[in-house]
Write a structure and sequence with these properties.
Elements: E1 20-22, H1 32-49, H2 59-81, H3 87-109, H4 115-123, H5 130-151, E2 154-158, E3 162-167, E4 172-177, E5 182-186, H6 190-196, E6 199-204, E7 212-217, H7 220-232
Antiparallel strand pairs: 1-2, 2-3, 3-4, 5-6, 6-7
Helix pairs in contact: 1-2, 1-5
């Protein structure tokens, strides 16, 4: 006499994760804060001056917009140029920023200190018209569209029994064994992780000697959990019937 397998040993439910898509993005995706500020700046300058070519009517608002854009762009470039993997690096960065901001406030609100430097800072007017911000935003838009299109032609797909690499305009496909797939997650840059939850995934396939390294994978923690759940479902199998 045989008995059916218990529900606990049944195959995974249909609503379980069927596949996980992994994409390695270029670092320019981390410039999205500057991209958004450029759009806001373009609209503000256009409304404030009544023309995309004028800057004189913008006043202090245009001056503040210009400094905001330059500072944010500078910080974004620092993020994509250097890695801040450790707490010490992060602390050092914030100390430098605090010292810089503190020195600027000291010069502005206490004119008796360093009057020459204060006069120079106030004389700098980094004001750009709306056309400048429109062009910057347009260039970034085309670049992001190119990144989105390239994503369709180069990505990895993790399935319960195999790892697939889709690449090329003709949809070339490489297959790797997934049942014994080992995954390593690394958060190399704390700022990149804050901006897009980004990190590095290293995939070790059982039938492949070289490791597959994917940098700048967005929302890496969620992807890792989904892959772990997907591959963990392989352990849930229907046992053959046994006589009792």
């Amino acid at each position: 006499m045989s008995a059916p397998a218990p529900d606990a040993l049944a195959a995974p439910k249909r609503d379980s994760v069927e596949s996980v898509i992994l994409v390695s993005y270029p670092k320019i995706v981390f410039l999205w804060p500057t991209y958004l500020v450029s759009i806001v700046a373009a609209i503000y300058m256009h409304v404030a001056t009544g023309s995309a070519r004028l800057t004189v009517e913008a006043g202090m608002g245009g001056w503040a917009i210009g400094w905001t854009f330059l500072i944010l762009l500078s910080l974004n470039l620092v993020v994509i140029s250097f890695d801040f993997p450790r707490t010490t690096s992060l602390t050092l960065f914030f100390v430098c920023v605090a010292l810089g901001l503190g020195g600027a406030l000291l010069v502005v609100y206490f004119p008796e200190f360093l009057p020459t430097i204060r006069a120079y800072i106030l004389s700098v007017e980094p004001v750009a018209n709306a056309t400048f911000y429109y062009i910057f935003a347009a260039v970034m838009t085309f670049i992001y569209l190119g990144v989105a299109i390239n994503r369709k032609f180069d990505y990895w797909e993790v399935r319960p029994n195999e790892l697939l690499h889709h690449h090329g305009f003709l949809s070339d496909l490489e297959r790797f064994s997934a049942p014994n797939l080992r995954i390593d997650k690394e958060i190399n840059d704390i700022f990149e992780y804050i901006l897009l939850g980004s990190g590095r995934l290293t995939l070790h396939s059982s039938n492949e000697k070289r490791a597959i390294v994917l940098d700048n994978v967005m929302w890496i923690s969620q992807k890792e959990k989904r892959i772990t759940r997907l591959l963990g479902a392989l352990q849930v199998q229907v046992r053959p019937e046994q006589d009792i």
